[in-house]
Amino acid sequence: MDVQVLKEIGLTEGETKVYLALLKTGAATSGPLTDESGVSRSKIYNVLGRLIKKGLASFIVKEKTRFYQAEDPAKLREYLDKKEQDFRKQKESINEIIPYLQLKQQLQEGKSEAQIYKGFKGIQAVHEHMYLKLKRGEGFFYLGIPSFQDEKYDLYWQRDHKRREKAGIRSRALFNQGTPKETLNNRNCYKYSEARYMAIAIKTPAWIMGYKDITVIGIQDEEGMAVEILNQKIADSFREYFEAFWKLSKRFN
Predict the structure, then answer these.
(1) Continuous H helices in 26-74
(2) Pairwise CA distance, residues 174 & 39, whole Å
(3) Minimal CA–CA distance to 99: which of 120, 129, 123?
(4) Chosen CATH of 4-73 out of 1.10.10.10, 3.40.50.150, 1.10.10.350, 3.40.50.1980
(5) pLDDT reported for residue 111
């Protein structure tokens, strides 16, 4: 029998030897398993513990002595299924953290770059980059937020404002005229947050976010997309635009 496949699915050489010994001996103490498997007495308990954790072995106690036995070989399928589930979760976690790692790399290398993020999760990720760069007391701005946005976006921004509030990060936002008053009331109810209407009645389907040396241009349509630009001069330019519009606006009542 080709036992290489057991190693390929994640069993170590020692685990493979002990597992095959369990299948051959049936319920046995550590002594016979050591002799049958060739795994040293100093390592046998550690190997058996790993096989039990993987669901491939178990033990019973008779007269204060442990007798180890192999589980039904069909358990190998369950073991593979669990590994597959764990892999999917790890892949999802990696996908979520990649944008943060990319931003850290950009900051380290001092590059001037632009990245495109797509979809609802992409817009979330690019917004949450600011938590990596902003400290308590610092802030960001949003310029030209459209008057309408899907419910999933609105709920996300409400949840994020609670997180931002705890982090002590400041937010200033200029919404297009026609945005429901309930939306501005909500944004103004959080600490360190102020939302106002644009003083000029223009419609901008895309919004601009800025902080430090980062500028983000986003659009929250059905597909959703955001462009993140790492460049100090561009960031300074858009900050000047925002400050000019902010001065023209009035505090929301």
Answers:
(1) 30-37, 41-53
(2) 70
(3) 129
(4) 1.10.10.10
(5) 59
Residue 195 tokens read as 């939302």
DSSP structural state of residue 215: E
* Interatomic CA distance for residues 164 and 139, integer angstroms: 10
Contact 241, 128 (CB under 8 A): no
Consecutive H or E run containing 229: strand 225-230
| Residue 174 burial (C-beta neighbours within 10 Å; 0-12, 13-18, 19+) | buried
pLDDT in tens, 6-36: 887 888 898 889 888 888 888 889 899 999 8
Give dist(CA 125, CA 167) in Å, integer. Answer: 17
Q: Give dist(CA 196, CA 184) in Å, integer.
A: 7
